[in-house]
# Entry
Amino acid sequence: MLARPGAARAEGPEPAEEPAAANHQAPAPVAPDGIEFRPGTGLHVESRDGRFSLGLRARMQILYVLQDQIDADPEQTMSIRRLRLVLAGKAYFEHVRYYLQFGFATRDMLIEGDSRRTPIRDVRIDLTPWRDLSFRIGETKVPFSRERLTSSGDLQFVDRSVANEEFNLDRDVGVQLFSKDLGGRGWLGYAGGVFLGEGRGAFQPTGIDLLYAARVEVFPFGPFEHEAMADLDRTGLRAALGLAYAYLQAGKRDRGLLGDIPDDGGTTDSHNAVADLVVKARGLSSLVAVHYRDGTRNSGGAVDGMGMPIPVELPRSGWGLLAQAGYMIPCSRVELSGRYTRIRGVGATSLPDRDEATAGFSWYVADHMLKFQLDYAHTWLEGASQEHRLRLQTQLSL
# Structure
């Protein structure tokens, strides 16, 4: 049965009931106590009648990288890794929510494998009239792997793993159905949707091929704030198990929505699956995830300068393993962490074998709102030592 939650309102006099023929374009004065600033979540403004709200927040990450590759001179960079601006709130009705996110750093604006640039990362409208069934439309993250769904501001390391880099489905334009508390018992959530399959920033006409994705989450010990990876609360045992599947028809890039366009101009049909588990208890946190992709290539019929057909590239079929853990040192805001990632190709594939081991140090000065993170990673490609990388990142959220 679909249950309708009560609408939470700020303390104060109840607004008069909205007449049936209300003028929705009339000015909406701000309530006397309707403006507040919350560190980390930004500035919030709410209208006196409770029908409108606007939240404005910003986040920045400054990153230094020292990289030493085999058969190459060491290199270093210092850059603005992320510069995000978010506007979010409700409009006209309590259960009409909006979320806009913009990225202004160079890497934020670039669409991977393409020359296009856009600051738009998320533009979505949520209709949430019922607890068990809500609707989302727009450009946002595909409901797939937990590591990708976790905000880049709430990570345990400087950035996500190479398994996420290879297997994640990123963002796309589409429609979703979802519930964070199916049945009202606090132990089950779901999300499923249909997307264009073109990835972030799509704007040109496309065929009728689509991306279908669904994810289910189970919380065996009850609900908890599982979005952030570190166990800053240091409370009792909590866990979240997620299972997801996605089918992409005629993906234009070699990693689905991301990566390079094959030289032969063809596409890839792919089955994608992931299982992930988060466990937290008294300062200890862990994440384990197993990815799988099975692709089938469709030739594009492209020819080279001599008029000869370009060979059809093999799909990047294979699996990936992610295992990471962190521990908050008692009586401190410091966390030590470690991560191991393995990627292996399966069958006739162009996916190279890859391993990466990472050690991390995080100082949460003000939780994830102000933190300093340092990590060191060593990468093996096709079994051979390939790269050493040291990263230092500062994050500030307003």
In short: The mean pLDDT is 90. The two ends are 40 Å apart (CA to CA). Residues 34-303+313-397 form a domain with the Porin fold (CATH 2.40.160.10).
